[in-house]
Amino acid sequence: xxxxxxxxxxxxxxxxxxxSLALQxxxxxxxxxxxxxHECAQQDEGKTGASVHAYLHRKEGDLSNARYWYNRARRPxxxxxxxxxxxxxxxxxxxx
Length: 96
Known about the structure:
- 64% of the residues lie in helices and 0% in strands.
- By secondary structure, it is an all-alpha fold.
- It has one domain.
- Helix 2 runs parallel beside helix 4 and helix 3 packs antiparallel against helix 4.
- It is globular and about 35 Å long.
């Protein structure tokens, strides 16, 4: 599934079955449900979970917390727009 197809699922009430926690995080974020997105991110202890967790805190405006999560993901802090970071994350995650 590419980014466009992923966006095409946003009319659903729940994320499509089989999405990783990282993709569920981005799905809930795109639905403007930061709290549910953050719940998913907190459950994903891997590197991809840290990447989307960093994005969420950057979007929230909590840059010190975002830096912590970028470090855990072993990524430099993003400097692109939030939309561009969201799309890049969706594109690089398996299963999208």
